[in-house]
Request: fold
Amino acid sequence: MALAGRVALVTGGSKGIGRAVAAALAREGAKLALCARGQDALETAAGELRALGAEVLVQVADVTRGKDITRFVAAAAARFGGIDILVNNAVSSTQGSFGALSDEEWRHHVDVKLLGYVRCAREALPWLEKSAQGRIVNIGGMTARDVSAYRITNGVVNAGVSNFTKHLAEQVGRHGITVNAIHPGYTQTPRMEAMIRRRAELEGHSIEEETRLRLAEIPIGRFIEPGDIAQLVLFFCSDAAAAVTGQSIAVDGGSGRAINY
Reply:
């Protein structure tokens, strides 16, 4: 993918999809800056990436706090001399029926994911404009397109991620920056396991039954792996995708039933 030497920021980079994306970028020779809220998980991820030969900076940061993002981006730029790639991946949400979700739970999801992505992009843009190959990849979710019981905040926020992606791509394309989004389907991560446990509880199912029900929705017959998402991130970040921008692509194994033109 010719990404050797490029500097990539990955938010929520210590676990799940973010960790897989960071590993894929490391294998391509990118330099990495990861942020997340937990120091221990960050250090574990950093150790794995350094074992792959990557230069890595990790920093505890909460994307709801503008000062944390400012410090993180500044530290990455100072360490590596610039920024070429931003992968927005941080998320936090609560499952529940519409009537059960409080204003605070709505605000929290919007603040972490949608506004968190806005904050990170705004802070990184001056550096991405200096790069000859600036890339932003926003990790959304299939609830942007499909209704999902107990995940209404996810749907609203992920639809916002798609809209933000398209609008930002329009504004920054003249600087050679592309902006794209990925909508993962059911992906084998600790978050998915927690989602299945919570939905089983809400529906009165066993975890095994709930897992079978979710798996039955996927035509390819398996859950998505974090590495499946990482491969599309690599493509978006590569020169092969230099003319692809403002797009939202699903990696869902065919589970999304909407037809998107």
